[in-house]
Recover the amino acids of this structure.
């Protein structure tokens, strides 16, 4: 499941709802991304997340479908917020439930890495010096590249 | 053709979206960028550094050689920074 | 932080409390382990978790300390229940907060793998055929062994 | 010496814990097991398969050659299955 919203979310309620009534789930791994008060050594007052409505939902659903192809997943959820957010605020929630805990860990890490490079979101940060658009990090590309299949695997 | 601009491209072009009808010769994303740059200094500033720009046609990421047609939704933006 | 308790826990409340007021945290990874309704192809009515009071807390604290040595962790929490639990019930919660999401994922997976093989808990399952003590899985030993340092690293 | 038994060892010995004073010659975990097995068929059943048994002295995992002393807390149990 995919949700793109301005409102905050409740990780505990989402966790409980995702596996409610499904007693085949053995492990649930979740990631919550938060707004940090520092970026590149600069204090941050707030950030604004802009996105591409329509395409965002489409790409997140594609990423989720890819994860479900690669790992045995019982249930999954991606919630991503947009709009202005202050330090400490929740930005993104990714939950993966599986009967195999290692699959849940890997699939959740995969989803987080991929949505950082594949989902059409852009962050604008507010500092003392004014506002600026955040540049993409090469380490995020590297993290996403970990999951790219090697050529000989692609043929399988 | 519907054009969308995000993040600092929106700031430089001065608009989030617009409806345009490029001339017939504009058949690829790259040709569309070249044509947009003739529309004024804001567009020239927005598309000055193509290395830092990504494009999507009908909500799929594409390269500069990808075809564009009347009726397409074409978006320009910097590399994504979500999550 | 370590807690060993009979009572259920609220993952959402624990998540919120762990990072409350700390705006340097960028990512929080959590694992919730649940009682499955099947084990080795057999339907399970319930399971009872026995533990070694005192030693359990000690081993969990040691495992947490080891994780904090290996990864940059802002905050962490392990809650493990004991007593009789029915399918769908929460057994264990592990939360790791870090400014680096990959560290949070790895440390959380490490903690879950290690507590399965290092913390003194034993599961007794109730099936139609009666009750029996669960045997340790070699795959859990393998999962924990992933994190064992290689000889040349131990010297560092 | 305080002895603790967990999981099916508890079922077989018939007790969760007991206070015992082994004779002087019982100086290691292995010797303690041998002595316990002389205490009755329940103990013999509990310690029949040492491969499936783990021990802790004063809440640290140890091997069969680890020393035991009066006043120690010694626990016996199968491999752990938590999490």
């Amino acid at each position: 499941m995919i949700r793109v919203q301005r409102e905050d979310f409740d990780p505990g309620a989402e966790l409980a709802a995702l596996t409610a009534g499904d007693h085949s789930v053995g492990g649930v791994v979740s990631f919550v991304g938060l707004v940090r008060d520092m970026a590149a050594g600069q204090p941050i007052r707030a950030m604004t997340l802009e996105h591409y409505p329509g395409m965002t939902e489409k790409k997140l659903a594609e990423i989720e479908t890819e994860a479900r192809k690669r790992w045995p997943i019982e249930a999954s959820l991606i919630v991503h917020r947009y709009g202005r957010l202050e330090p400490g605020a929740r930005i993104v929630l990714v939950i993966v439930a599986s009967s195999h805990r290692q699959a849940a860990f890997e699939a959740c890490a995969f989803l987080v890495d991929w949505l950082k490079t594949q989902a059409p979101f852009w962050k604008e940060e507010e500092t003392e010096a004014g506002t600026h658009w955040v540049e993409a990090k090469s380490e995020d590309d590297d993290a996403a590249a970990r999951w790219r299949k090697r050529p000989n695997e692609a043929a399988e | 053709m519907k054009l969308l601009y995000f993040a600092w491209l929106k700031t430089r072009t001065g608009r989030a979206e617009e409806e345009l009808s490029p001339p017939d010769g504009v058949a690829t994303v790259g040709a569309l960028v070249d044509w947009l740059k003739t529309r004024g200094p804001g567009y020239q500033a927005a598309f000055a550094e193509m290395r830092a720009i990504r494009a999507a046609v009908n909500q799929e990421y594409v390269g500069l050689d990808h075809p564009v047609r009347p009726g397409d939704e074409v978006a320009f933006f910097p590399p994504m920074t979500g999550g």
